[in-house]
Amino acid sequence: MFFLVIKRILLGLITLFIVSLITFVGVEILPGDACTTYLEREAYGAALEACYERLGLNVPAYERYISWAAGVLQGDFGYSLSGDMKINDVLGPRVKNSMVLASASILIGIPIALLLGIITALWRDKMPDIIISTIAIFSMTIPEFVSATLLILIVAIWLEWLPGIVIVPTGVSVYELLPNIILPVIAISMIMTAHMARMVRSSVIQVMASDYVQMAILKGVPYWKMVFKHVLPNALLPAINVVALTIAWLLGGVVVTEVVFNYPGLGRLVIESISNRDLPVVQALAIILASIYVSINLIADLMTLMLNPRLKSLQIKK
Amino acid sequence: MKTSVQEIKDLTIGFQSQKGEQISILKNISTTINKGETVGIVGESGSGKSTLALAMMGYVKHGLFTISGQCMFHSNNLLEMKNKELETIRGRKIAMIPQNAGQSLTPNLKIGYQIDEALKLHTDLKKEDRDKKISELLNKVRLPSPDTMAQRYPHELSGGQQQRVAVAMALAGSPELLLLDEPTTGLDVTTQAHVLELLNFIAKDTDTSMVYVSHDLGAIAQVSDRVIVMYSGEIVLDGPVRSILKNPIHPYTYGLLKSIPKLTLPGLPNSMSGSQPQPGSIKSGCSFYERCEFSDDNCKIKTPTLEYINDLNTYVRCFKHKELTNQNDLNSQTVKSIENKILKNEILDLSNVSISYAKQKFLEQLFNKIEDNNPTVKDIDININKGETLALVGESGSGKSTILKSIAGLLKTKDGIIKFEKDKVLSNDLKERDNSYLRAIQLIFQNPDESLNPNHTVEEIISQPLRLYFGLKGQELKNKIIEVLDKVRLGEFYLTRYPRQLSGGEKQRVAVARAFAAKPDIILCDEVTSALDVSVQAAVLNLLQELKEDFGTTYVFVSHDLAVVRAISDRVAVLYQGRLCEIGPSKNVYKFPSHPYTEVLLGAVLEPDPDIKPKLVAEDIVEEKPPENGCSFQGRCPRILGDICKNEVPPWQTSESGNLIRCHIKIDDLKNQQSLN
Amino acid sequence: MNNKKEKQKNILQKILEILKTMASKPSGLIGLTILVFHVVLAITSPLYVPHDYKAIDPTLMLTPPSSEFWFGTDSLGRDVFTRTILGGRTALTVTFFGSLIALLWGGALGIFCGLVGGKTDDIVMRIIDAFLSIPWILAMLLIVSLLGTTTLVLIPALGFFYGKGIVRVARAATHDVIAKDFIVSARARGHSNFSIIWNEILPNVRDAIMVEGAMRWSWMLLGFSSLSFLGFGVSPPTPDWGLMISNARGLMSFAYWAVLAPIFGLSTLIIGINLTADAFAKALGIDRSTKAPV
Asked: Could you tell me how many CB contacts below 8 A there are between chain A and chain C?
């Protein structure tokens, strides 16, 4: 067991290493560099040299990678392109704000998805299933920016129930942030919830058709006891990994939704840094988002390992 | 007057076809299960026997529904009961032992919990009493160390152990009626015999009524008092076990019994033509009409009813049963004995072959060697003559299929040499084998569903070897395919069919045709009849024998079924844990003196005759790995001598009749000991 | 030779059969109808648009819907109806070819990995996983911001990023197939690797890959319209739903029509593709709800 956990963690770290290589190499091979984009038409002669000097771009690529990676390992992403702001300072509060948004969506989305998935599976092909599944198809397919726009139009503009655009400074406390995140959370969790509900539904249906569930029925196990003891543990186990992938996918949706609501999180920073071609910030963002992805998957892997009796006993034997 | 436990009245269960028709898969079933009685329900796949067993618990599968009729359990109709009421009957009054216990035990719950669950539901025992009862039940089904067993998860047990747990779970509620759905299918021969013996013991011990559903007449014969034969959703015969199996008065049962290979009657059994009709395809007349050798025009028009024959205490659904009443030739049955022209030249020679599944370590990869002192298969020396049929026999884990794969080049050998036609060494690497050798050795697999590409038509399937080895094209190719199909008795119209449109027997014929299309010298048959229904099995065996006589092909025939092997082979090699135990002409291997393992295997064979009981000489322990030293069978041997068996590899000894036995016990001693039983 | 013709006829028959099965359920029929409608509209709309899509007229700014301007006008006085029926053309073209590229490279690499297994497979999957862990939106934004937003950049970039999921599906399907006895049988007969892939594996993984490709299409449309909403997709004045929504969003408290019209266009197309993909999967007997959207 211990060995497997270590192995998974190592694999996650390797993935992160590859990500850092990909972003670094990607930025290198794409035409232009930080200085040419920053200086634009003045990118020649002494100004360019000075810029290279300032950003340390005049040393070989591998050396830059090593010093950059060493910095990242110590939690230091260096300076943003303009050079006057430490990336850490720019990112810190925004990461926090985005995390608030994402966690709220996950915390609300997962229980709802589980509930809807189980309901649709148990009432398969009956009214509750047909209605919920139809709604799920709609909410799964509409892009976040569309549902966000519609939410603002209907709830904020026409009904005037909630603020449509978030107008708080970046550094505000979580408490002050809360009323502003209701609509963004709905917009973000719609796609994710619908996806997970469908996943859970088909997993439960699969288990319901298994020999051991038939056996439990024939043993006289009451319906709900059968559902909770024999069906759900076996149906939800394989769902964990897919849920993790869905959550990771949500990160992309967060970016778009934050832009729509003018939310002071990573999303706007992504757009800004890319528009300004602030490559150091882009690299930092890629690493941060990838680490979140890797950790979510790692947690899912470890949960599966812990809950699956098959894997558990496999480890004891070895 | 016996008291009845369950009465089934005119039960019809079916489904709605896509066109909206009601199609019955059980038709007007009426029968009664009496107290203390064991009823065997026998039928081929698709006969509706499992649906019937489930209906007896008031359970109808998703997609099926009751069209008419009742399942009366003590004057309550189970099929109309609410779920709440059924919960008090299922597990408490009627319990089920499922076919595949491995998949019927919930994977995330411990064995102890699953039995405890049944006890909690169906008894008033307190926690401590329940714990005691769990141990008691596990003891009763003869599982070793019940207390640790209760702490295990289902996947940690062997197939036989899982089946025993299922039995224990069913017994937890002390039911009046026990339903067993193919409880021993998929188990090894010796395990199967042991489980059946346990069930017999429980039936006597607890006076529980049992319904035993199986396709295997051998198993049915061992446990049943009464037998119901089902065909195409109908009961065609229902009566006392001896009457049914010794004097079957329905043509289907008669044909079925004749098509089963038996140890007592060596040779190729008669085959039954055709296959069971699809549900809904028979609108009028007898459903067995197409395959019946006694039928006349009347049978096609009029539908027979279930008729009671007083003399035999038997119900039969046939107009012609009188013709069969006096046809008592089952034992004097003539079977075709095989006569192979065996040439004296060796075609295949395995010398000192060992095969290991161990992963190569890095250094070993460099030197292309495998370091494994205890390989899965070890020291196999066999030579096969041209035109011969050599059978490899053993239970799961005996390495018989592994050897076959190595001959085909699919698995590398660790040591030893495989030679073709005396002097041509077959390379260990498939890629290095000459095309002509590849053509010369063809494989036929166990399950045609897996061995035929589901997305290819029969034409495409058979064209593969023809194109590859002979470069045939166009009309020439098509003609050849038709010719090959004709050899396996399939008409030209099969060309455009996909495997899913064929019956099991037809699929296996296509697989046989594909192998023969390559004009091979040797065909390796891997359990080729195990996935087939009994009536189809005989036909495939006969086909293989005819083709062999036509082409002089050599067969290496792997099977776990000793009766099938007896019917088709010239020589038999018995394997245990990847080591040879005995090899010799089949008529001698099946006679004493035998290797103790052969003796155990032969004792466990189930004949479709209630008067021939299996002899259980050894425990059915499952060994995961062969022992490192000494005799491979030391762990289970009933005649073990002592340390010598544990330390020294036994020598080969030759018996008078010419079979080689690898045992420390002297041949004469073996003969004396075995003749005593 | 008539063999080839027969084969073509068979394939045609199979396609018709699948279409028939898809249309036999209401959801499949609706999906197909919407999709066909959008495709026909995208191809033919330039022939009958009522106004010039780029004609700016300040006097007509934010006119509400009328008989002249069915969906009203936008902040520059352009006809919203005209721009809406033209607005799906780029999206459809880019995502259609994008999914085709995704299908091809993803399918090929997936089959390769599934077949060779072992170390090569491990390494390739690890790299794929790493690519997967960079949010697609960040990577896409980076690429288009540095290389430009022409279709020649967008199609391969989207094709590349959305092919990752297909690799996994194709690999898993191949894994399942190569354990089957008919592959063992073909290997034992001595067929070449190419013949085994082409004749034995491909026919058995084709359905799974195509269904996955259909799903990718709807997700890619979602991704593409998000890009274009963020201003990294189609360049103005070319009409595009994502861009139209983004431009009209700020003024939607006065002129909701300018937002609702492109939302309607985009939503119906995505739902149409999704329903079609669902029906396609069901017609081929594959359950698509078990897959994660990555």
From this structure: 150
In this prediction the ipTM stands at: 0.83
Cα(C289)–Cα(C294) distance, rounded to whole angstroms? Answer: 13
Q: Does C199 touch chain B (CB under 8 A)?
A: yes
Q: What's the rounded Cα separation, in Å, for the pair A172 and A97?
A: 9
Q: What's the Cα-to-Cα distance from B600 to each of A15, A180, C116, rounded to whole Å?
A: 55, 78, 43
pLDDT at B275: 80
Tokens describing residue A76: 């230091």
- Do B363 and B479 fall into the same domain? yes
Q: Do A212 and B106 touch (CB under 8 A)?
A: yes
CA nearest to A307 within chain B: B108
Nearest to C130 among A15, A241, A252 (CB): A15
pLDDT for res B514 = 95
Q: Are B606 and B260 in contact (CB under 8 A)?
A: no
**Chain A residues touching residue C225 (CB < 8 angstroms):** 143, 145-146
Domain annotation covers residue B494? yes
Q: Using the beta-carbon criterion (under 8 Å), do C252 and A149 form an inter-chain contact?
A: yes
B372 pLDDT band (50/70/90 cuts)?
Answer: confident
Number of domains making up chain C:
1
User: A219, B169: Cβ pair inside 8 Å?
Assistant: yes
Is the Cβ pair B90, A214 closer than 8 Å? no
Does some domain include residue B57? Answer: no
Q: Which domain holds residue B621?
A: 591-676
Asked whether residue B626 falls in the same domain as residue B486, the answer is: no
Angle at C263 between CA C257 and CA C268, to 5 degrees: 130
Type of residue found at A28? E
pTM for the predicted model, two decimal places: 0.83
Residue with tokens 């609410």: B82
- Set of chain B residues whose Cβ sits within 8 Å of the Cβ of C204: 453-455
Interface test with C, best of A8, A131, A149 (most C CBs within 10 A): A149
Of A36-45, B238-247, C248-257, least confident by mean pLDDT is: A36-45
- Contact yes or no for A32 and C290 at CB 8 A: no
Answer yes or no: are the C-beta atoms of A253 and A144 closer than 8 Å: yes
Q: How many domains does chain B have?
A: 2
For residue A203, what is the nearest residue in chain C, using CA coordinates?
C290
d(CA A202, CA A120): 9
Structural domain of C133: 2-290
Domains of chain A: 2-73 (no CATH), 96-317 (1.10.3720.10)
Residues B595, B466 within the same domain: no
Which residue of chain A has the CA closest to C266? A142
Residue with tokens 């963004």: A184
Q: Which of C182, C191, C204 sits opposite B451 (nearest CB)?
A: C182
The answer to which of A74-78, B157-161, B498-502, C84-88 has the lowest mean pLDDT is A74-78
CATH value at residue B513: 3.40.50.300
Cα–Cα distance measured from residue B31 to residue B70, given in angstroms and rounded to the nearest whole number: 11
| End residue of a domain, out of B525, B559, B579 | B525
CB contact under 8 A, A290 and C274: no
Residue B333 confidence (pLDDT): 63
Asked if residue B119 has pLDDT above 50, the reply is yes
CATH number at residue C186: 1.10.3720.10
Tokens 């040499």 sit on residue: B417
Render pLDDT for C7-37 as a digit per residue (tens, 0 to 9).
777 788 888 888 888 888 888 888 889 999 8
Kindly tell me if the per-residue pLDDT of B359 is higher than 80: no
